[in-house]
């Protein structure tokens, strides 16, 4: 029998796992959240993921964790989200991946890596975040009124990458390909522009 945890979301019984695809996360969960439509299940809590370090986030140890979060905080001189936490910061790596439904782009997935400390001398960790956002244009059968959108929601999947996994989400090749100029702020809003070349490796199922 389903139980509720202290965040007010469904806690699955032993033996059951939440393993949604990228498409399901965007179409069935994020899109419905943004337009205040009923969700398939109350399985993903609302949480500002940057209020806590990744190891302090609620959820089962060793399992992927899913959260609805907002991108309200921006850097003073741009449109990038402020992803600083108490002990470090999330940094984007690689190129955003389009999420397709019947060959149509319905969302984008950004991969981020958590670094301890302050930029640009942070220490890379094995914590990974996949941040899903809706595409600006969504030609889907169900067409809600854009004026009904409720906030700048994203859906975050956070997990600790296992070393030695050949299928790890963030590959060395992905990281070495990306070179971008980005602004990073620490928790005290100490902002700086850095030209970063990343060269280090770094629905319920019944």
UniProtKB/TrEMBL annotation:
Species in which this protein is naturally found: Opuntia streptacantha
Transmembrane spans:
none
| Cross-referenced PANTHER family | NAC DOMAIN-CONTAINING PROTEIN (PTHR31744:SF93), PROTEIN CUP-SHAPED COTYLEDON 2-RELATED (PTHR31744)
Q: Does the keyword Transcription apply?
A: yes
Which GO terms label this protein's molecular function in UniProt? DNA binding
InterPro entries listed in its UniProt record: NAC-dom (IPR003441), NAC_dom_sf (IPR036093)
- Ranges for domain NAC come to 12-161
Extent of the signal sequence: none
One of the GO BP terms on file: regulation of DNA-templated transcription
Under what name is this protein listed?
A: NAC domain-containing protein
Pfam families found in the cross-reference section? NAM (PF02365)
Which UniProt keywords are given for this protein, alphabetically ordered? DNA-binding, Nucleus, Transcription, Transcription regulation
Quote the PROSITE patterns the UniProt record gives.
NAC
């Amino acid at each position: 029998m389903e139980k509720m945890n202290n965040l007010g979301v469904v806690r699955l019984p032993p033996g059951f796992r939440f393993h949604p695809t990228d498409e399901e996360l965007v179409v069935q969960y994020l899109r419905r959240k943004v337009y205040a439509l009923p969700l398939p299940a109350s399985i993903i809590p609302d949480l500002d993921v940057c209020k806590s370090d990744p190891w302090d986030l609620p959820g089962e140890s060793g399992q992927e964790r899913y959260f609805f979060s907002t991108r309200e905080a921006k850097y003073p001189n741009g449109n990038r989200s402020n992803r600083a936490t108490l002990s470090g910061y999330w940094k984007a790596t690689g190129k955003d991946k389009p999420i397709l439904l019947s060959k149509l782009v319905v969302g984008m997935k950004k991969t981020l890596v958590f670094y301890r400390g302050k930029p640009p001398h942070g220490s890379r960790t094995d914590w990974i975040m996949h941040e899903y956002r809706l595409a600006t244009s969504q030609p889907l059968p169900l067409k809600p009124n854009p004026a009904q959108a409720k906030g700048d929601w994203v859906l975050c999947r956070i997990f600790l990458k296992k070393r030695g996994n050949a299928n790890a989400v963030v590959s060395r090749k992905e990281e070495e390909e990306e070179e971008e100029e980005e602004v990073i702020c620490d928790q005290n809003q100490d902002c700086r522009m850095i030209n970063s070349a990343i060269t280090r490796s770094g629905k319920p199922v019944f």
